């Protein structure tokens, strides 16, 4: 049957193939903003692939994006999704399903009464960079225009606010000046505080392609860890945590010393350079090298490459932003670009990589506590008056609102009585989890507007408002290069869920009626009407989009701003004319001074704990955590240490350790990593209470990695120092271990995880993750000081189906060792191990491989951990797309040694051709290269 186009809009074509329909949308993960083509049968999403016409990705997707359809499976949706409103009227009662009318009337009455008694600043809104621009706009208008409080902030405060502040201090406004096309023009790419090989894989593919086309391109990577990105750089600067300002100042000092700056550009287009020069005098190379922990030779090489290049492009992310001196780091890097005139030209510029899919859109509409619509300043009376006129209100309040950390502190003090949380999970993502959770308990009313009822924050909700999510929403998002994409829904709203903007407008109209407002300022019936008002707010501003419309975005595809009325296209890169949106029209140098991390290590807390992204997971994993195969690359919560520190502390691979900061303790599995420097530890930012927990001190519970992170905030951006904390690491002396894993019906796998969560708090340590590919399994792992009662173990086993006549049992009560195996159709279906877990590897691989156990006989129950003859572990999965393991790659490389001694690029081509790994999304290619180099080094040794 021929494809039938049912929409005549080429930029947004819906195609029916038989009974299947294809719709263009965007990926809902990082800020790259990849276009996707979603295939559905009208009831469910059945497939997804990259959109070859989308200028952000040209058809490429990473492991996360390419598995998006798996997150929308009906069986998982029924378990994970919030599908109807829930309400509890007293703090100790359970939430009950109620109607939307009852729920929204209740909230509106609460708001009116609380504000009448305590004033508008007694309420707060904590929203998300995953909302659409239209959602963001109405939340901002609701808080600042209707209610009259600036207490509206976003989880973008946790990731992008230092980049915002740095751009504004130096360039005059929050506008990334470069674009993705600049990768192809750059001669030097300086990657600092970012690991795009993991966090922005599709952009990293573009960098790889640019290097292939331009072999003379140089890449410099500055990072405390030798990440996959750093490993592939021409120059790796393993700087100590938090020393970025010293590095940039030192590089600029050298550029000045060696006449690599552009005095004519500085004189014509900038101001403040004289003051900066005085500051830079202190950053002599020897001192900077000592501060940063790098060699003077490498510092000089980095400065010369950057300054001598015809086009130097910087890429940076949370390593700069999540810091108590994040704004200074951003500004110091922009200083380096301005002084060398590496800005406003193809291939040059300071390019902040956005973490969330629409953090940029949220910034555009003023969805943060210190800004208002269209990059206007809250502190500027004229700006407030302009927005008030547009909104039809008397005024926008002048008092700054509470930012993310401050908001939860205010709730904890009782200043904010009502907290409305939308599309974010602060009970996982905020620093100092103990304070955050105390605040959520103390609030008079917690409203959670959320698509997923499985997040930790939902447990604290007095009101749960079910919202739509990816594949169901309609509107726009803006990616890292200022490109706006318009998309339509693929599926209808599930259950009683409503769009985020609809929920806000419904509430706003009820609030208006109860508070006596005669005419509504929320007249919208469609997201387009909201967007049109946002568009008008940008007229004459730096991000002017008055030349755009939904129709243009549909017909011509995604467009970059600015795109003013009368323009035929958006602007690829900014400041090509040397004019900046400052009062003088000049860019401003900022005199940046290096300050150490907020928590320096000491004798009590001797390790630098770093956090960052894993390759195949995203944020709090409320979405990626539903896809079993995305756990195969990093199967369980772990802290990564250097081999030197493991040996010094007598910690073996896979042992449990206490990681303790000044705020709390969490137990993790210890793993050795060749990317780690001695004295440093790395933990994935994703591991919250949903996946790793424990009994904690006095039974109060532990909450994952953010029980440890530092709440110190940057004085300008108010962004917390989530990237770094000082910790101590000690072996966890927990002699009793229990492990159970097995296949679970997909229709109850997430339900089982939720049921296990209360059990996790009964043990000193517990983790719960998924495994599998075509089938889904759950792994539940615990450790404690003493053996748990047999009744408790039996209760947990029964949840995995380990009960009845199909269970083979070995019990050594005296030694506290048991092995219980559920057998279905001559295959392992579930396994429970108590005391001795040494048979875990081969039993789990037998289960995953679906191999017959008939030939194993008594070996299944023998106390020995010895694996069956001929068993070889597959090891960790390297290529998630095609399920290729470490052992398969290693075996191929050994076989190649017998044939030839190929160069690394030849071996890489051979691995791709033979095993197909690296040929789909390419996310595993850096790791393949690493394995090849280590193999060749081993042969040489």
Automatic annotation (TrEMBL):
Its cofactor is [4Fe-4S] cluster; Mo-bis(molybdopterin guanine dinucleotide). This is Molybdopterin-dependent oxidoreductase. It holds the Pfam family Molybdopterin. Belongs to the prokaryotic molybdopterin-containing oxidoreductase family. NasA/NapA/NarB subfamily. The keyword Signal does not apply. InterPro entries: Asp_de-COase-like_dom_sf (IPR009010), BFD-like_2Fe2S-bd_dom (IPR007419), BFD-like_2Fe2S-bd_dom_sf (IPR041854), CT_Nitrate-R-NapA-like (IPR041957), MoPterin_dinucl-bd_dom (IPR006657), Mopterin_OxRdtase (IPR006656), Mopterin_OxRdtase_4Fe-4S_dom (IPR006963), MopterinOxRdtase_cofactor_BS (IPR027467). The keyword Lipid metabolism does not apply. Keywords: 4Fe-4S, Iron, Iron-sulfur, Metal-binding, Molybdenum, Nitrate assimilation, Oxidoreductase. PROSITE patterns: 4FE4S_MOW_BIS_MGD, MOLYBDOPTERIN_PROK_1. Residues 20-76 form the 4Fe-4S Mo/W bis-MGD-type domain. It comes from the Bacteria.
């Amino acid at each position: 049957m021929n494809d039938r186009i049912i929409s005549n809009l080429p930029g947004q074509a819906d195609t029916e193939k038989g009974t299947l329909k294809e719709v263009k949308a965007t990926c809902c993960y990082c800020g790259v903003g990849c276009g996707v083509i979603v295939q559905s049968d009208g009831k469910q999403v059945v497939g997804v692939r990259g959109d070859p016409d989308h200028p952000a990705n040209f058809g490429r997707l990473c492991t996360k994006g390419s598995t998006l359809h798996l997150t929308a499976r009906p069986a998982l949706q029924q378990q994970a999704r919030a599908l109807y409103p829930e309400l509890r009227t007293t703090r100790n009662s359970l939430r009950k399903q109620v109607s939307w009318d009852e729920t929204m009337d209740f909230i509106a009455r609460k708001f009116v009464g609380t504000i009448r008694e305590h004033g508008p600043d007694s309420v707060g809104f904590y929203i998300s960079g995953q909302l659409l621009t239209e959602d963001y706009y109405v939340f901002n208008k609701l808080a600042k225009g209707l209610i009259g409080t600036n207490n509206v902030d976003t989880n973008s405060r946790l990731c992008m606010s230092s980049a915002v502040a740095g751009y504004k201090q130096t360039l005059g406004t929050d506008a990334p000046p470069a674009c993705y096309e600049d990768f192809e023009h750059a001669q030097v790419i300086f990657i600092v505080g970012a690991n795009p090989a993991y966090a922005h894989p599709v952009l990293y593919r573009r960098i790889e392609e640019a290097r292939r086309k331009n072999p003379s391109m140089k890449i410099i990577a500055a990072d405390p860890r030798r990440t996959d990105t750093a490993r592939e750089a021409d120059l790796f600067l393993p700087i100590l945590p938090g020393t970025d300002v010293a590095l940039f100042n030192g590089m600029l000092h050298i550029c000045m010393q060696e006449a690599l700056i552009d005095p004519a550009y500085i004189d014509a287009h900038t101001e403040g350079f004289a003051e900066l020069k005085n500051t830079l005098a202190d950053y002599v190379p020897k001192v900077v090298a000592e501060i940063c922990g790098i060699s003077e030779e490498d510092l000089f090489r980095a400065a010369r490459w950057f300054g001598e290049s015809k086009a130097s492009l910087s890429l940076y992310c949370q390593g700069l932003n999540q810091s108590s001196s994040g704004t200074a780091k951003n500004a110091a890097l922009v200083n380096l670009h301005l002084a060398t005139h590496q800005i406003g030209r193809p291939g040059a510029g300071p390019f902040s990589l956005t973490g969330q899919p629409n953090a940029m859109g949220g910034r555009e509409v003023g969805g943060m506590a210190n800004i208002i619509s269209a990059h206007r300043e809250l502190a500027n009376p004229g700006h407030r008056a302009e927005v008030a006129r547009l909104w039809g209100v008397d005024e926008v309040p002048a008092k700054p609102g509470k930012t993310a950390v401050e908001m939860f502190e205010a709730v904890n003090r009782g200043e904010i009585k009502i907290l409305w949380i939308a599309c974010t999970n602060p009970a996982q993502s905020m620093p100092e989890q103990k304070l955050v959770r105390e605040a959520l308990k103390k609030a008079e009313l917690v409203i959670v507007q959320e698509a997923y009822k499985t997040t930790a924050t939902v447990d604290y909700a007095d009101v749960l408002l079910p919202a739509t999510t990816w594949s169901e929403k309609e509107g726009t998002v803006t990616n890292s290069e200022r490109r706006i994409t318009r998309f339509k829904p693929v599926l209808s709203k599930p259950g009683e869920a409503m769009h985020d903007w609809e929920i806000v407008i419904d509430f706003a109209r009820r609030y208006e009626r109860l508070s006596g407002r005669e005419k509504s300022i929320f007249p919208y019936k469609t997201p387009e009407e909201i967007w049109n008002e946002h568009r008008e707010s940008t007229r004459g501003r730096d991000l002017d989009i008055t030349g755009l419309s939904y129709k243009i975005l549909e017909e011509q595809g995604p467009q970059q701003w600015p795109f003013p009325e009368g323009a035929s296209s958006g602007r690829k890169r900014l400041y090509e004319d040397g004019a900046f949106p400052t009062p003088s029209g000049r860019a401003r140098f900022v005199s940046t001074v290096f300050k150490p991390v907020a928590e320096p290590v000491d004798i009590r807390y001797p390790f630098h704990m770093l956090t960052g992204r894993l390759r195949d997971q995203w944020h709090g994993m409320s979405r990626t955590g539903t896809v079993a195969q995305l756990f195969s690359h990093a199967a369980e919560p772990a802290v990564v240490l250097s081999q030197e520190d493991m040996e010094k502390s007598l910690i073996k691979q896979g042992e449990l350790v206490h990681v303790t900061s000044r705020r709390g303790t969490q137990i993790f599995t210890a793993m050795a990593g060749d990317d780690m420097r001695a004295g440093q530890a790395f933990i994935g930012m994703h591991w919250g209470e949903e996946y790793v927990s424990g009994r904690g001190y006095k039974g109060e519970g532990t909450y994952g990695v953010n029980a440890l992170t530092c709440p110190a905030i940057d004085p300008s951006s108010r962004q917390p120092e989530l990237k770094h904390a000082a910790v101590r690491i000690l072996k966890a002396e927990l002699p009793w271990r229990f492990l159970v894993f097995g296949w679970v019906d997909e229709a109850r796998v997430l339900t089982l995880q939720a049921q296990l969560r209360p059990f996790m708090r009964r043990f000193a340590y517990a983790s719960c993750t998924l495994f599998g590919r075509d089938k889904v399994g759950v792994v539940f792992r615990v450790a404690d000081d003493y053996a748990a009662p047999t009744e408790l173990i039996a209760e947990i086993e029964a949840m995995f189906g380990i009960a009845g006549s199909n269970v083979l049992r070995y019990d050594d009560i005296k030694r506290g060792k048991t092995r219980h195996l559920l057998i279905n159709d001559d295959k392992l279906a579930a396994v429970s191990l108590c005391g001795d877990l040494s048979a875990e590897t081969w039993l789990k691989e037998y289960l995953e491989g679906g191999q017959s156990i008939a030939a194993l006989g008594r070996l299944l129950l023998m106390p020995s951990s010895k694996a069956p003859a001929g068993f070889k572990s597959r090891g960790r999965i390297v290529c998630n797309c095609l399920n290729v393991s470490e052992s398969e790659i290693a075996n191929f490389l050994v076989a190649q040694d017998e044939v030839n001694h190929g160069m690394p690029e030849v071996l890489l081509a051979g691995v791709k051709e033979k095993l197909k790994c690296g040929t789909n999304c390419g996310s595993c290619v850096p790791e393949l290269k690493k394995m090849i180099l280590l193999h060749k080094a081993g042969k040489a040794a």
